[in-house]
Write a structure and sequence with these properties.
alpha+beta, five-stranded mixed β-sheet, 21 helices, elongated
Length: 638
């Protein structure tokens, strides 16, 4: 086209609601299922705005039988129906047929609301093939019908009404959305339930069709109750039993419920004026900054910051699950779909309120705080450990894969982690006996040579380059650090099978340190065990007894008949036991004894591991000297 043919007559002016029908995506985000449902959210949010401002207590939503239309009713004040002095049209028709018309601009009728552009109802009307508005106000009921944004009937007075409120029935236009789109009842129910949590005292009822049974939604526990529901749906165990929660009216009205979980991700569900903000915004940013600052301040005050560990804000918020609801008088949303709140002043208000309250809560709940801090410290250590491990250790494939397993691993034939067991055995000699005495169907043996690397002192380059630790990770198949995936664990039970002497205890401690720092999920989920091989064999006539230590040996001897002269043998190591002896005392599930490894007080556990296995020798020296008098001569290397 040449410039001469492009003139003023080519300029179009879209009037009324034509812009909405011409470019619906500008107003509802698209003409797919999300946009289709967005029409319903606009009408529901208008009713919620009545409730937020104290004018409504009930909202009812009903889908048409074919799920292609919906009715939303409330017991609010009712949309005004009197004649507008300037435009000579009823307020109802003006709101439904004119962009940027509404009662939410001046702040006189609505102190807070989800609508700020005055386009919600008119956009729904424009994109509906049919809409009927029924208003109960001043003791009378009024009704008016519309098609594709234009009034097709006059506002009529139907008759007297004992109640008050507004009911809107609409059917989205198939010319815009296509003939296949329809409302999803489950999606709507979940959205409505969320609103019933956010607004304590609001009763919302929903039914899938005019003849279906009503589902009533009411949650007096508010967002604290909502948080517990979310935790249940996400199947995440909480680190502390009681959630932290606050409610504030000034300078920004807000509600927050927060709890740390064992999850490895951060989850925040935020709302602004009752509208979900999946893209976050300034209220979420204020929350995240507040949590990081409050925890840092608490740790600094109580001198809980561990040596050699750099805590990031992400470490502090790892596992955090929160529901945040803020109300803003003049909300600035990003676009008409309102996915993100942009008010800059909200960030500071939320940060100050949450930081102050959370820091005080941590001071007032010391035991709970210790569990949270321990969780955070472990996250920081795991992050630092995984940084190098990601590039060195690759996650293994499905549990049935047998590729790239350590050459000295004697694997079991079973590929079912529920029945499979792995024994980490001290030394090749004991490993050989264990291979002969095991159940080849369900028990795998991995011999370890000497003492493994101290994971508390070594850097990640040394750890990932250590063959013994690499073999363990390869055999387990579940990866480490950020690559850890419990679903890929090849063995449901991992036994540490070491000699019953000081060297054996040291190796077990080194392995537990490695698991605690780099594979804590195995301990938390109960997969790590300490095998309990006997130290003594006691033959008394035709009977054989086994004793774990001297105390148990003396008990066995004291219980024998006086006329029996027992023969006592002490094993210097697992290598001295025959395959049959190892099987009957330590491998056979029917006869063996084992201890499952668990974590008690996490903060205390972290401190002990760091002090006794870390680089600073002074805590170890004090530990040894404090207990030197308890050591027996036979336990000392002389």
């Amino acid at each position: 086209m040449s410039n001469s043919t492009y003139t003023a007559k080519d300029i179009e002016v879209l009037e009324g609601l034509d812009p909405v029908r011409k470019r619906p995506a500008m107003y509802i985000g698209g003409t797919d299922a999300r946009g289709f449902h967005h029409l319903l959210w606009e009408i529901v949010d208008n009713s919620v705005d009545e409730a937020i401002n104290g004018h409504a207590k009930r909202i009812e939503v009903t889908l048409d039988a074919d799920k292609k239309g919906a009715t939303v009713g409330d017991d609010g004040r009712g949309i005004p129906v009197d004649m507008h002095p300037k435009y000579k049209r009823s307020a109802l028709e003006l709101i439904l047929c004119t962009l940027h018309a509404g009662g939410k601009f001046g702040g006189k009728n609505y102190q807070v609301s989800g609508g700020l552009h005055g386009v919600g109802s008119s956009v729904v009307n424009a994109l509906s093939e049919h809409l009927t508005a029924t208003v109960r106000r001043g003791g009378q009921e009024y009704r008016q019908s519309y098609e594709r944004g234009a009034a097709v009937s006059k506002l009529v007075k139907v008759g007297p009404a004992r109640t008050h409120g507004t009911t809107i029935h609409f059917r989205p236009d198939s010319q815009i959305f296509g003939s296949k789109e329809s409302f999803n009842a489950q999606t709507i129910l979940e959205r409505l339930e969320a609103k019933s949590y956010l607004h304590k005292g609001l009763k919302i009822s929903f039914r899938e069709s005019p003849t279906a049974v009503w589902v009533h939604l009411e949650h007096p526990g508010g967002i604290v109750e909502y948080l517990q529901k979310i935790l249940g749906e996400r199947a995440k165990a909480a680190v502390h039993p009681q959630a932290f929660s606050i409610e504030r009216e000034e300078p920004v009205r807000m509600e927050l419920a927060l709890q740390w979980t064992e999850s490895t991700d951060e989850f925040v569900k935020s709302y602004a004026n009752g509208i979900p903000t999946p893209s976050g915004g300034t209220h979420e940013a204020g929350l995240k900054q507040a949590v990081a600052k409050a925890v840092r301040n608490y740790m600094t005050t109580h001198e809980l910051t561990p040596k050699g560990v750099t805590l990031t804000a992400e470490d502090i918020r790892e596992g955090m699950c929160a529901v945040l609801s803020a109300y803003v008088a003049e909300p600035q949303f990003q676009g008409q779909t309102k996915d993100r709140l942009n008010n800059p002043e909200v960030q500071g208000h939320v940060e100050t309120a949450v930081r102050t309250a959370l820091e005080q809560w941590l001071h007032d709940n010391k035991r709970t705080s210790e569990g949270i801090i321990a969780r955070i410290v472990l996250s920081a250590r795991a992050r630092e450990a995984s940084r190098a491990a990601i590039s060195e250790v690759k996650r293994k494939g499905a549990v049935s894969h047998r590729l790239n397993l350590p050459g000295k691993l004697a694997d079991c034939s079973s590929t079912d982690p529920v029945t499979s067991e792995l024994f980490l055995v001290e030394g090749d000699s004991a490993g050989g006996n264990a291979k002969q005495g095991r159940d080849r169907r369900t028990q795998a043996i991995l011999p370890l040579r000497g003492k493994v690397l101290n994971a508390e002192r070594a850097n990640m380059q040394a750890i990932t380059g250590n063959k013994e630790l690499q073999d363990i990770v390869s055999a387990l198949g579940c990866g480490v650090g950020n690559d850890f995936d419990l679903a890929k664990l090849r063995y449901g039970r991992i036994f540490l099978l070491m000699d019953a002497d000081s060297d054996g205890y040291h190796i077990s401690t080194l392995l537990l340190t490695f698991f605690y720092r780099h594979l804590p999920g195995l301990i938390r989920n109960g997969h790590i065990y300490l095998a309990m091989p006997p130290l003594f064999r006691i033959d008394a006539g035709k009977e054989t007894h086994w004793a774990l230590d001297d105390v148990e040996k003396e008990k066995v001897l004291a219980a024998l008949p006086k006329n029996v002269r027992p023969e006592v043998s002490r094993f210097k190591g697992l290598g001295e036991m025959s395959a049959e002896e190892l099987k009957s005392t330590t491998l056979d599930p029917r006869k063996r004894r084992a201890l499952r490894v668990t974590i008690g007080e996490e903060l205390e556990t972290d401190r002990i591991v760091n002090e006794l296995m870390g680089k600073d020798p002074s805590p170890r020296f004090r530990f040894i000297m404090d207990r030197a008098g308890r050591a027996q001569a036979e336990d000392l290397d002389v």
